[in-house]
Structures are given as structure tokens and as C-alpha cells.
TrEMBL record:
Designated name of the protein: Glycosyltransferase
A molecular-function term among this protein's GO annotations: UDP-glucosyltransferase activity
EC number(s) given by UniProt: 2.4.1.-
PROSITE patterns per the UniProt record, alphabetical: UDPGT
Transmembrane segments: none
CDD domains in the record: GT1_Gtf-like
Top EC group: transferase
Keywords linked to the UniProt accession: Glycosyltransferase, Transferase
Ion transport listed as a keyword: no
Family the entry assigns: Belongs to the UDP-glycosyltransferase family.
Length: 498
């Protein structure tokens, strides 16, 4: 039997990170039969859409899923400091990772092995696990779940902070335009993600993780050359492997709608003209208070466009929970809104996003600009109206609107602080929202942004096919992984997969 190369994947515990990592793993295995993968799963105490997805997964001969979650008592200890909980939680799983690799077996006398440990693939927030990989004398790769542009921004600010000792908090609330390697246009400081300008323990530890990036053998980025050529050319170390867009087109395992609810949504879309509907959805954590909801409703009614709106209730203040569905939308919407928009608009709770974006009736997407959502939208040629909320989404919005010309702006310097550190977010008025929607949906197929989005759809598809840029990049990664085996004495018993 041909020896197999074993990769150990350690994805972040959030749904967006875990699902993307599993899709990457499947892509690798489909490409080369000499590889097998173990995905080590860490479960957060609060279910951010992960549990139903995990339950849908099944191990195969070459792909296994291993729960390494620490016990409740240990997790409770991490929760004592909410600010550092997430990173402490990941760090606390190091012993479990070591146990897994030891117990999978390296040198049991008399055992027959047909696989050899070739490396770790670590989520961008799990780079502290490089210590474990080094202990077993194997290389580490990063799976960077955001854009190449954000990776460039991370390296830029890591250099400012650690090499040039610059206090980047001076950029907070600044009107300065910055020159950042990886961006063609001057970057307004007011669009910087908070993690680049805050001076907190979490930010310090995040940039410690970025420093680890430089010690990795390679960085896998969920993007493709045709989408971000400028940013990718700016990244010199380490080896970059862009082989996206990797998208989970099957939402069945982690959706929160019943089949009948999803069918009702698709049936409504079936009755709408092609490219006529603007879809509003703000991610798994996206929600607004009542005042902001009313401004969105007014904007939609005035815009005279058909709409499908995913509207969700914010979690209780101070609780680490996902938004939930309303029992009755009338309690937050303007009086008579449902009746007045009947036939041209539909308000829903949780949205089966891929199924909606792939529907021919959808012509535009008002989005929080999470990277997975952006890739999904571009895979179906749908332009975006950018209304970022948190994390790196303000930078993603700038990338879409100013760098790539694939979107329009609603409010790019909007920040929705879920933890309450910065007070309530500004209210974006109906006039501003309406303007963004009108720009997004104007002129039908003659809309230049829509034309560019449809062109990017074709480029994204071509990149993944044989002969495409992402196909070639994946081949280079696999070749490197296989080469790791010939230089490593360690082996793993793959009989546990059978």
C-alpha cells in the first residue's frame, strides 16, 4: 500500500472557521488519495451554530472528526475572564492535541503503519499550537479564513507594533489616510478594524499570533489570484497558497430553518422577476435594535425595490448568545409595514443564505461583509451593499467598494460593538440606506458593479477548475505536504479510520 501523508487540522471553534476548514479538507482529499486528515474539534460552551453542523459530519476512511473539547470545569475557568476567554480556551486545548497525536501512535512496536504525520493545518487563531507541531518535528501551515488583503493588513500592523514600536491607537477616530502594503488606494484610518487600534490584552495576543505566522511553512488563504492580485503580490513570506473560493454550498447540516420554512422562502423567490430582489442579511451575529430596524424598514419601503430581509432579535445585553428569531415581526417593524409591502417584500428569520444568493431572482445583497458571505455572493455574481458590523468587516467593505469595485457603500465606518465597550452604535438613517440600495439595484444588467460581479463569478469558477490558478495552488500545497513525509520519521496508525 502506498504510504499516506496525514494532516492534523485544528480549526477555530466558530462556525465560519470550522465549516471553511472542513471544506478545505474535503478539497485536499478529493485531489489526492495519498492524503488523510484528522479534524480536531473544539466546542465552545455557547452554541454559535456549530453543534448541528458537527452532528451532520461523518468520518470516512481518510477523513475523521475528533472531539477534543476540554471539560466544563476547565472551560468555566476560562470564562472568568471574558476579555481573554476565546484565546485562553484555544490555548487550553494544547494538552488534548498532544494526547491525540501521542495516542494515534508513532512507534508502537509490532504495529503496521500506512500513514505518516506530514504537518498541522492551524486556524489563524490557533497558531500557538505551533509549539505542539514543533514537539513532533513536523511543519505547520495556517488556514487564514479571511482575505489576502486582511493578511497584508495584519502583517503591516504587526510590523508597526513590534518592529517600529508605534502606538497604533493614535489612528483611532483619525481622519488620516494611510499607505498600507497590499492596498492600491490610501486607506482611511476610520475604516481600520478595532483590533488594529485598541490597546488591550486581546489585541496584543492577536498580534502575537500574527508573529507566529512568519514561522509557518505556508499560509492557505481562502481567496484566488484573480480576486486579489495586488494584495497577494505584496505578501512575500511565508509561502502563500490561495486556493479559493472554498464555499460550503450544502447548508443542510447547519441551517436553522425547517424544510418547510426554506421551501416557503424559495417559493416566494420563484414568483419574483429575475435579478429584482435585494437580499438583506447580516451574518450569524447580525442584529439591530428597534430604532435601527425602523430606519431599514423605511428605506426599503421608499426604495421601491423587492426585498427579502433576514431580521433577527438581538441577544440579551451582556450575554454571549446568537440572535434569535422573532415570534412576531410586528413588534419591531413600523405599523402597517408588512401590509404595505405585501407581495413585494418578505421578512424572514434565519436565512438559508447560499440557497437565496444562488436564486436567479436575487440581484443585490446588503451584507455585513463577512469574508465567507462575500465569497458566496461573488460565486453567484451578486454585487454587495456594504454595511460592516465587527471584526475585519470594515476592511472587507473597503476592499469590495474601493479596491475591487464590486460593491457600494451604505456605511463603511459603522461599528456594532456586541460587548458594549464603546457604547451603542450610531443609527444609520433611512436616507443613507435607501441610497445604497438604489445604487446597488440601479440600471439592471447595465449596472457596472453588477457586470463586474458577474465577471468575477466566471473567474471564481475558472480558478477552481483544472488549469485554474487555485487548482494549481492546491497542487503546490499537496506536493509540499507529500514531500514532508519523506523527511519525517514519524508515522500514524491509520487503521483507526477503518
Amino acid at each position: 500500500m502506498t504510504p499516506k501523508a496525514e494532516l492534523v487540522f485544528i480549526p477555530g471553534p466558530g462556525a465560519g472557521h470550522l465549516i471553511s476548514a472542513v471544506e478545505i479538507a474535503k478539497l485536499i482529499l478529493d485531489r489526492d488519495e495519498r492524503l488523510c486528515i484528522s479534524v480536531l474539534i473544539m466546542k465552545l460552551p455557547m452554541d454559535f451554530g456549530v453543534q448541528s453542523y458537527i452532528e451532520s459530519l461523518s468520518s470516512t476512511t481518510r477523513l475523521q472528526f475528533v472531539d477534543i473539547t476540554v471539560d466544563d470545569k476547565t472551560t468555566a475557568g476560562f470564562l472568568s475572564n471574558k476579555e481573554t476567554f476565546f484565546m485562553d480556551f484555544i490555548q487550553g486545548h494544547k494538552p488534548k492535541v498532544k494526547d491525540f497525536v501521542h495516542n494515534t501512535s508513532f512507534s508502537r512496536s509490532g504495529s503496521r503503519f500506512d500513514s505518516q504525520l506530514a504537518g498541522f493545518v492551524l486556524d489563524m487563531f490557533c497558531t500557538s499550537m505551533i509549539d505542539v507541531a514543533n514537539e513532533f518535528s513536523v511543519p505547520s501551515y495556517i488556514f487564514f479564513t479571511s482575505s489576502a488583503s486582511f493578511l497584508a493588513l495584519c502583517f503591516h500592523f504587526e510590523s508597526l507594533k513590534k518592529e517600529h514600536h508605534i502606538d497604533t491607537s493614535k489612528y483611532k477616530d483619525s481622519d488620516e489616510d494611510l499607505t498600507i502594503l497590499g492596498f492600491k488606494n490610501p486607506y482611511p484610518a476610520k475604516f481600520l478594524p478595532r483590533l488594529t487600534t485598541d490597546q488591550t490584552v486581546v489585541v496584543t495576543r492577536f498580534f502575537d499570533l500574527v508573529t507566529h505566522f512568519k514561522g509557518m511553512k505556508g499560509i492557505i488563504v481562502n481567496t484566488f489570484t484573480e480576486l486579489e492580485p495586488f494584495a497577494l503580490q505584496s505578501l512575500s513570506v511565508p509561502q502563500i497558497y490561495p486556493f479559493g473560493p472554498v464555499v460550503n454550498f450544502n447548508e443542510g447540516g447547519h441551517g436553522r430553518n425547517s424544510q418547510s420554512e426554506t421551501e416557503s422562502i424559495i417559493k416566494w423567490l420563484d414568483d419574483q422577476p429575475e435579478s429584482s430582489v435585494v437580499f438583506l442579511c447580516f451574518g450569524s451575529m447580525g442584529s439591530f435594535d428597534t430604532e435601527q430596524v425602523k430606519e431599514i424598514a423605511i428605506a426599503l419601503e421608499r426604495s421601491d425595490h423587492r426585498f427579502l430581509w433576514s431580521l433577527r432579535r438581538p441577544p440579551p445585553k451582556g450575554k454571549m448568545e446568537l440572535p434569535s428569531n422573532y415570534e412576531n415581526f410586528q413588534q419591531v417593524l413600523p405599523e402597517g409595514f408588512i401590509e404595505r409591502t405585501n407581495g413585494v417584500g418578505k421578512v424572514i428569520g434565519w436565512a438559508p443564505q447560499v440557497a437565496i444568493l444562488s436564486h436567479p431572482a436575487v440581484g443585490g445583497f446588503v451584507s455585513h461583509c463577512g469574508w465567507n458571505s462575500i465569497l458566496e455572493s461573488l460565486c453567484f455574481g451578486i454585487p454587495i451593499a456594504a454595511w460592516p458590523q465587527y471584526a475585519e468587516q470594515q476592511m472587507n467593505a473597503f476592499l469590495l467598494v474601493k479596491e475591487l469595485g464590486l460593491g457600494v457603500e451604505i456605511r463603511m465606518d459603522y461599528f456594532n460593538d456586541f460587548e458594549g465597550k464603546y457604547g451603542p452604535p450610531d443609527i444609520v438613517g433611512a436616507k443613507e440606506i435607501e441610497s445604497g440600495i438604489r445604487q446597488l439595484m440601479a440600471n439592471g444588467d447595465k449596472n457596472e458593479i453588477r457586470k463586474k460581479a458577474k465577471e468575477m463569478k466566471e473567474k471564481s469558477s475558472a480558478a477552481m477548475k483544472e488549469g485554474g490558478s487555485s487548482y494549481a495552488s492546491l497542487g503546490l500545497l499537496i506536493e509540499d505536504v507529500i514531500n514532508n513525509v519523506s523527511s519525517s520519521p514519524n508515522t500514524i496508525d491509520c487503521s483507526i479510520f477503518k
